[in-house]
Amino acid sequence: MKSVDRRDFLKLSGTTLIGLTLGGVALRANAQEQLQADDPTAKALNYTPASTVEGSQCNNCMYIQGSEGNDHRPCALFPNKLVNANGWCSAWVKRPG
């Protein structure tokens, strides 16, 4: 097994960070149409555009992207789709902080 020296580790870490950053930008740029309840992924995750779970909405989930204040925003779980900020799905995880 080859050991990784500090220089290689830093190169790999920097490349990974750049990839994650650009991936997030691409996700926000490509998301254009609103997620429909009949979408197969939406069905699999029990997505609803209006949350019935108190305190749990897409708006405060760790997977939502984009700036707050928008009614529909990109979500990491639904590529190229916009979710309702007041929605909910079974993959909801409270945003840290």
From TrEMBL:
Keyword set, alphabetical order: 4Fe-4S, Electron transport, Iron, Iron-sulfur, Metal-binding, Signal, Transport
Signal peptide (UniProt feature, chain positions): none
Domain of life from the UniProt record: Bacteria
Ranges where the High potential iron-sulfur proteins family profile domain occurs: 29-97
Ranges in a coiled coil: none
Keyword flag rRNA-binding: no
Pfam families to which the protein is assigned, alphabetical: HIPIP
InterPro entries: High_potential_FeS_prot, HIPIP_sf, TAT_signal, TAT_signal_bac_arc
UniProt GO BP: aerobic electron transport chain
GO molecular function, one term: metal ion binding
Function: Specific class of high-redox-potential 4Fe-4S ferredoxins. Functions in anaerobic electron transport in most purple and in some other photosynthetic bacteria and in at least one genus (Paracoccus) of halophilic, denitrifying bacteria.
Protein name: Twin-arginine translocation signal domain-containing protein
Organism field: Alteromonas profundi
